[in-house]
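Reading a protein record of the kind used here takes only a little practice. These numbers are not coordinates but entries in a learned vocabulary of local backbone shapes. Here is one such record, which you should read through line by line.
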Amino acid sequence: MRTIKYFVVCVIAVMASLYVTSCSKEYSSPLKGQVVKDLTFESSQSSNSVTIADADLTGFTIKSSELWCTAAAQGKVLSVTVQENDTYDDRQATITVTDPGDQTTITFKVLQKQNDAILIDGSTFVVPEEGGDISVKVQSNVDYKVEIPASDTWLKLSTRASTRGLVSSTIVLTAEKNNSGNTRFSHVKVTDGKSGVSSTITVKQDITPYIEIDKKEFNLDEFGGEVKVTVTSNIDVNVQFSDDWVSSAGTTDKSDFNFIQKIKVNSLPSGQEKRTATIFFTDKLGEWLITKEVKINQTLSLSLKESDIEIMVGKSHTLEVINNTGKSLSWKSSNTSVATVNSSGSVTGVGEGNATITVTSSDGKYSAKCSVTVKAATAFIKAQSTGGSVMILNDLVQYGSKLSWSFSNNTSETVILKSLQLVDGVNGQEGNIMDVNADVAAGSSVGYTITIGLAGIHIPVTCRFRYEYNGKEYMTTAVFEGSINLF
């Protein structure tokens, strides 16, 4: 039984061997003699397909030598896919296609271009105000060019480099001194002329702003005039005036941001002794809040505090003078028989009348005047009617009416009021003398009321005031013209 089984197995094996030999001799792979051109891809992820001898590739063995490249058969189409090339070099893979029928194999290459790049170590570079070189490190695998905006003439390319295969190089840019009046920027492009791949370098040049002026204060006389301030700066400067009596008279010698500012100062108004204005020099852009100030002080060069005075005969008054001339207080009286003046400005009344006192600077350029009226002492004693409670019939002030009077001492010394006496305005009859004998201090006043007697008194009613001044007796009067005031 075993012998029979063994025989059957042998027969089957021989027949299978004969069949296989017969088939292998008859099968010819469609891959034989086929050539597939290399496939080229850009650096981005993408796919492409090929057909080989119009053969169905299903069941064929397809392999790629690199993980970033894959291939698969879909019927008669062989699809090849590449991932994005994140390297900076070209790369290649080999695709192998094997026919399992007779192990026929063909290969072709897949080429993928490099990832073009221009890598810059940093994006913003700062150059000092005085200018200088900037070194920019670049890594690139393309030939690049450096493009500076045409308007940025202050920046030049000193050195440029071209490279391939992500090699380090250096770009050197040279900046001129910043005289633009502001912080400035330039955006420099580093560009691959073929692919358009580019990076941008921002160059920033700072400025340390300043405003300097040669004078901080001016002192002018009443006539005003023009003053000049030299302004030195590296930025645009704005000029402002605090008052309208100072204004710009223009600028001269402008160079960059330096100039001479001319300032017009109006004459001092009559009666005004002094005034002050401020000139502000500020940065025009308002970015740095820089301010420089110039004070303009205007004062009377030579003036007298009083333009006219009254003094008594024998008395003195010292005039107060303002002297900003820097020169010595000469004095002169136009009429020494009325008033004299000494070197200190003390005016003495000599006789009744008028005179003019003049003070002049020693260089004769400035002068000031004061009018002086000299009066007798009696001119400074004033008496007047102040009304009262009065009844008048037929110009007769009736019995019991009360007349009020005042006496003022405007001299510089005490006087003695001796008495008061009323005088009838029609018949001149003198009333009783009212003794007073009261001291009236300098600059003070006293008041009295007199009651009318039985006979009454006609208007106008005169009141005589007798007083003593410096040992001499004088008289002054006041008159009541008449009014009706019922009790």
